[in-house]
């Protein structure tokens, strides 16, 4: 872990990454790709130590309230966050200035900040997004090595639901030959139904692979799934988009089950929900119900 002073913290679309790198150890992580130009080891976390000061300056100068997003490129609840509390400090600022929050993670550490989520939800909107990929617990520990398993994330979603915090699930990536099965998708969807999630983001049953990410993934296949790397090479070569041969069948199952239980399954509609800050009048009306 090392510390840097960032020049800015919010993107043009009001997203932020407080850290660079990750210690979750997911075998498929796209953020390892060389295109992101890491100049340090991926597990050597870069901490933007002045992030909270930059965020306060940015929110203070904004004329209009909006949703602030975090977690797209780097999980805000990695192991170091437990001690550093940088994510919490930034959420405190978001709450104090009356902005909304859309936060994405794989960690149950997110529950530590439930009190802040509730305060944000009372006057704006807070949405917690959780990635679920692998229903089987033993397999999950291989695919997403150093973070809590899917069952624990499901339990986290339930607690958020019970405390009035809306949730969205990322059902992605789905790894060919590994978790692209009906049993896996059914299990995850049952969790989503039970947890009352608002929507599920899924771009198709598959994954992406590119330089940097691909090498790490293949090394993990050699370690945990001997012979599988050769199957990937034979079927996909060096393609970036890796679609499961089960895509059509699994997507049909996905849409059918979501629509039967009132879960939003249109990606654009879910993204619109995540990015829309409620107008004062609309929010007051929603609070009445």
Strand and helix layout:
Layout: E1 2-4, E2 15-16, E3 19-20, E4 46-48, H1 51-61, E5 67-70, H2 81-84, H3 86-96, E6 100-105, H4 114-123, E7 126-131, H5 137-143, H6 150-162, E8 167-170, H7 182-195, E9 199-201, E10 206-208, H8 213-224, H9 228-236, E11 241-243, H10 247-260, H11 267-275, H12 280-288
Parallel strand pairs: 1-4, 2-5, 5-6, 6-7, 7-8, 8-9
Antiparallel strand pairs: 3-4, 10-11
Summarize the structure.
The protein has 289 residues and is α/β, with parallel strands linked by helices.
Q: Strand order, biggest sheet?
A: 2-5-6-7-8-9
Query: How do the helices and strands follow one another from N- to C-terminus?
Result: EEEEHEHHEHEHHEHEEHHEHHH
Rg computed from alpha carbons, rounded to a whole number of angstroms: 19 Å
Strand content: 5-15%
Low-pLDDT residue intervals, each spanning 5 or more residues = none
Task: Choose one word for the global shape.
Answer: globular
Number of helices: 12
Note the main sheet. Answer: 6 strands, parallel
How far from one another are the termini? Answer: 46 Å
Helix content: 40-55%
Q: How many beta-strand segments? A: 11
Q: Which structural class fits the helix and strand makeup?
A: alpha/beta
Overall mean pLDDT stands at: 95
């Amino acid at each position: 872990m090392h510390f840097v002073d960032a020049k800015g913290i919010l993107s043009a679309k009001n997203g932020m990454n407080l850290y660079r790198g990750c210690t979750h150890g997911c075998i498929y992580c796209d953020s390892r790709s060389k295109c992101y130009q890491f100049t340090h080891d991926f597990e050597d976390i870069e901490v933007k130590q002045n992030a909270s000061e930059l965020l306060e300056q940015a929110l203070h100068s904004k004329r209009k309230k909006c949703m602030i997003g975090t977690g797209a490129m780097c999980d805000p609840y990695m192991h170091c966050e437990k001690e550093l509390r940088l994510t919490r400090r930034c959420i405190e600022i978001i709450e104090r200035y009356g902005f909304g929050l859309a936060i994405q993670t794989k960690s149950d550490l997110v529950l530590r900040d439930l009190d802040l989520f509730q305060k944000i939800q009372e006057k704006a909107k807070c949405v917690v997004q959780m990635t679920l990929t692998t229903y089987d617990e033993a397999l999950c520990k291989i695919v997403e090595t150093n973070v809590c398993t899917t069952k624990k994330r499901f339990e986290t979603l339930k607690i958020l639901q019970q405390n009035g915090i809306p949730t969205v699930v990322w059902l992605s990536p789905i790894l060919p030959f590994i978790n692209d099965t009906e049993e896996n998708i059914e299990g995850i969807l049952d969790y989503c139904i039970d947890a009352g999630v608002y929507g599920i983001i899924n771009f198709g049953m598959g994954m992406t692979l590119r330089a940097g990410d691909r090498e790490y993934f293949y090394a993990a296949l050699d370690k945990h799934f001997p012979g599988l790397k050769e199957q990937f090479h034979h079927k996909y070569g060096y393609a970036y988009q890796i679609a499961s041969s089960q895509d059509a069948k699994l997507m049909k199952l996905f849409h059918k089950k979501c629509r039967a239980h009132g879960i939003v399954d249109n990606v654009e509609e879910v993204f619109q929900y995540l990015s829309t800050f409620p107008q004062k009048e609309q929010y007051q009306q929603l609070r009445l119900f």
